[in-house]
Every structure is written in C-alpha cells, then in structure tokens.
Design a protein that fits this description.
TIM Barrel; alpha/beta; nine-stranded mixed β-sheet; Immunoglobulin-like; binds 2-acetamido-2-deoxy-beta-D-glucopyranose; 22% strand; single chain
Length: 468
C-alpha cells in the first residue's frame, strides 16, 4: 500500500523523470509543417530516445510575417498529444530589436492554453518553461520573469529553467571560474528555479569541453535550494556564416569529436547526471548542428520545406542524419544505466569538405573566427558486434586502421592528404581480411570551391539511419 502511494506521489511530483532528453527545435523552420509532418519529426526523434522538443520561437510580432508560428504550435501540440511526446517552450528572448517584444500576458496565454495537454512537461507539478536568453535584452530580465511567474497560478504555475547566455558564456570562457558565474546567475535571477546551460561548444578555444561549468551550475542550483532542473546541453557541431562582411558573424567552434566526447561524459561510472539533456539542435540548419534529415532544397511543396538563402550554400548536401545513431546509443546507455548490447556493425564518419586554409569564391572565406582550430581529417566512430578492423582512406592517405570490438564504441581518424582536391573518403569494416561493409563519403574534399564551408558531412557504413 505504502509503495503504491509513494510511487504515485513520485509520479505526481516529478513527471519529467531523471535525464529526460529534449531536442531544441526552431519553430521558424516549421513554416510548411502540418500535423502529419510534426508526427513524422516526432517519430524520428522518438526512434532515438528523444522525449520532447524544446520549441524555440521568436515573438510572433517581433518581425513582420511570423504570426503563423502560433498555428504551427497548435499543430505540434495536436501531434505530440497523440504520441506521448513532450513540448517545452523555449522562448527566444535574444532579439534585441523587435516591433513587439514578448509580453507576460501573451506568454501566459500560450502557456495556459496547453496546460491540460498531455504534451505539456511538468516539474514539481508546475509547467516547465525554458528560454534562450532573457538576460541581455533590456525589455526582459529578472523582474519580467518574476512578473510572468506570479501571473500564472494553480495548474498554470510554471517552473522556470532559463538559458541565460551571459552566465553560460562567462562560465565557458578560458580561465573562468564557473562557480562564480553560477552564483551571480542565482543572485541576479531569483526567478530562475532551474537553469539551461546553453554553452555546449568550446568557446573560442581549441580544447575539448569539460563538465566543469555544468557541475558548477548544477551544484549551485542544488545548494541554493532551487527546485528546478539542471538542463545540460549536448551538441554535435557549431558553424555559422551570415556572410554579411562582419567578421563577428562567421565562426566555427572546435567540434571535431565534440558529440562523442560530450555523450561520454553522460555515461559510465563518472557520469554527470543532469536532470534533463537538451540536444542543440534538431533543426537549426544555419548553425550546422541539426540532427534532423535535410529537407529537399528544391521541393517547395514539401511539408518540411525551408528557405535558407545564402546559408543553404553550406547546408544543402551536408547530411547529418547518421549522427542520430551516436545519439541513440548514448541516450539508451544513459537512461538504462548500462551500455546497450551491440547487435549491428555500424561506423559513422564525418569530415569537412574543404581543407581549412582553402579560400572559396563565396561566403566569408578569410574572416571565419576559429578557422584554424578544426583538424583537416576524417573522424570515425565505430559500433560493431564483433572484433573488426576499421580501415579509413582519403586520397593518398590509404588504409589508416583502428580496432573495434563488441565491448563498446571506438574512434579513429585519417588526416586529409596534402593534395586533397577530389579525394573521396572511404571507410570499411574489415573482418578476416575481408570488407564486411564499405562506404564512400557522399561528398568529395575540394580546394576549388564556390562557397566556404566548415559544416561537415556525416556518413554511415553498414545498416541504419541514413537519409537526408
Ligand atoms: C503581446 O504580444 C502579442 C504577441 O506578439 C501581441 O499580439 C500583443 O499586442 C502584445 N501585447 C502588448 C500589450 O504589447
Ligand atoms: C580532444 O579529444 C580527442 C580525443 O577524444 C583528442 O584526440 C584530441 O586531441 C583532443 N583535442 C584537443 C585540442 O586537445
Ligand atoms: C536543387 O537544384 C539545384 C539547382 O538546379 C541543383 O544544383 C541541386 O542539386 C538540386 N538539389 C537537389 C537535392 O536535388
Ligand atoms: C568508392 O569509390 C571508389 C573509387 O571511385 C570505387 O572504386 C568504390 O567502388 C566505391 N565504393 C563504394 C562502396 O561505393
């Protein structure tokens, strides 16, 4: 009797269970979506263990012509409600210039609207709400959040886990003291019940990410007695080029092995245990960290059609879908607490398509921040059921090998050769001297190029997700 009661109470108190996984979703890229398209994306996310989307949307009247986002969110809730999927608001409060900014009554209306929908995530009974920003634009800030929270009561009350970029960037800076950033955040934002640490990439340094900042925010929340979740961000890559002549507006983050490194921090004996993971992102194409299949660039009638303009020049053709296999494996490990059995032979390999010192004709070729940081190499992550040799070739760098077996994933790489122009990376899974599976990359490396591109293409050897 007692057990049943305790279990029921636990269920009530913490419906978002330990380490739920959300993926950041740009509603702006869902212009053409209908309910079925939302269902397709949700099924594809659920296939790898994602529990919900964090819906990033900018104020609908911030710029002209975004009023449709409210209707798309309606459709998203209809789809998610029928599929046991969650939708968490991630109000984008980063636009410093808007015709109409976010206001508390409209946000409150949108939060309350789906209060009884099964897709609404709850934390300590409250509706869980997150943001991107809210700390850097004068119209918002702590008082704004306090006002929003006090306007929502009863079944509409919220638990706020904002993503405040000032503190996350400060904590991620070289030589920073993340615990001091975490305590400033808590003292400046009494409204923050939890926290999303947005900084999922090395910040202008060519070193691998550690969990120091994550641990600082997590333990500061806990020791201050805040009741909300610590949300840790995990991302595969970062490259953006607005191509507007401003060197501040094109950058790459050191991301060569970031995705695997970050997931490894979440599994095993020394795993960091955040309350929630937020994958950055599902469909932010222009920042090169999408996991979703690429839409068809030319099918303007497709329900996932998206207009990327110039930025499409570094996105179209750069499939990332096989990265979802990596996510699926680690999400399963994280949730169940032990490594999943390996039943297939799969190698995921990724590479940029131009050596880093290449000047292409278009795009910001010479002013990309951190352009010297990535290694000119093909990286591979292998998950095989039996002892195998993984053989990697690119141009004159032939048959670079590493060993893999059924005990867990392993990684290898092969550098681009000096003359890489035209080379197509080729990767094989070998057993007993025979290739069991071989794949060529879908993209050749080139040094004669029409547009600069630091967004990698991701490939798969063996069976599994490979569309896009
Ligand atoms: C609040 O935001 C909504 C949505 O953008 C807008 O329609 C409304 O006019 C705003 N209200 C105020 C008082 O600014
Ligand atoms: C990052 O870690 C990888 C191993 O996962 C290692 O090969 C690489 O050298 C590291 N990068 C830096 C800049 O230390
Ligand atoms: C879309 O059209 C352009 C221009 O005709 C072409 O270069 C490109 O390959 C097409 N993309 C796809 C995915 O078919
Ligand atoms: C990869 O490309 C090479 C060179 O064009 C070709 O010989 C080989 O058959 C290709 N492999 C696969 C699996 O398509």
């Amino acid at each position: 009797m007692f057990t049943t009661y305790a279990a029921a109470a636990a269920l009530l108190l913490r419906v978002a269970s330990a380490t739920d996984v959300y993926a950041h979703f740009m509603v702006q890229n869902a212009y053409a979506y209908d309910v079925d398209q939302w269902k397709y994306d949700i099924a594809s996310a659920q296939q790898i263990g994602i529990d919900g989307f964090a819906l990033n949307w900018i104020p609908p009247d911030c710029v002209n012509g975004l009023g449709w986002t409210v209707d798309r969110i309606d459709d998203a809730f209809t789809a998610a409600d029928s599929m046991g999927f969650k939708l968490m608001y991630s109000f984008d409060m980063s636009y410093s210039s808007c015709n109409v900014y976010w206001n508390q009554s409209f946000m409150g209306e949108m939060i309350s609207k789906y209060s009884s929908n099964s897709a609404t995530p709850r934390w300590n009974n409250n509706i869980l709400v997150s943001t991107y920003g809210g700390d850097q634009v004068d119209e918002y800030g702590n008082d704004f959040f306090e006002g929003l929270k006090s306007s929502l009561t009863g079944s509409n009350a919220i638990t706020l886990a904002p993503g405040l970029t000032t503190y996350s960037m400060e904590a991620g800076s070289e030589g920073a003291d993340p615990s001091s950033s975490a305590s400033s955040m808590l003292s400046d934002f009494s409204s923050a019940d939890g926290y999303l640490n947005w900084q999922a990439w090395p910040l202008n340094v060519d070193s691998n990410m550690t969990t120091t900042a994550d641990e600082a925010f997590q333990s500061a929340l806990k020791s201050s007695g805040r009741s909300g979740p610590y949300i840790m961000a995990v991302s595969p890559w970062q490259y953006k080029d607005l191509n507007n002549g401003n060197p501040l507006d094109s950058w790459v983050a050191y991301s060569d092995t970031l995705f695997v490194d970050r997931w490894q921090q979440l599994v095993g004996d020394n795993a960091i245990k955040p309350d929630i993971i937020e994958i950055l992102t599902w469909n932010d194409f222009c920042e090169s960290h999408y996991l979703r299949n690429l839409p068809d660039e030319n099918d303007t009638s497709a329900k996932d059609y998206v207009e990327l303009g110039d930025m499409g020049a570094y996105v179209w053709g750069q499939n990332h879908a096989p990265w979802r296999i990596i996510a699926k494996y680690y999400i399963a490990w994280m949730k169940q607490g032990y490594a999943p059995a390996i039943t297939m032979d799969q190698v995921i390999f990724w590479h940029r398509v131009h050596p880093k010192d290449t000047s292409c004709y278009g795009g910001s070729s010479t002013a990309i921040r951190n352009a010297n940081m990535p290694a000119d190499a093909v990286f591979a992550w292998a998950l095989v059921s039996q002892k195998s040799t993984i053989s990697m070739s690119v141009g004159s760098n032939q048959y670079w090998e590493f060993e893999a077996d059924g005990s867990g994933p392993s990684m290898g790489m092969v550098p681009f050769p000096d003359n890489a122009n035209g080379a197509v990376p080729e990767v094989s899974i070998m057993r007993d001297g025979q290739a069991v599976h071989t794949s060529n990359s879908t993209q050749a490396i080139s040094t004669d190029c029409s547009w600069q591109n630091f967004n990698p293409v991701v490939n798969l050897v063996g069976p599994g997700i490979n569309t896009g």
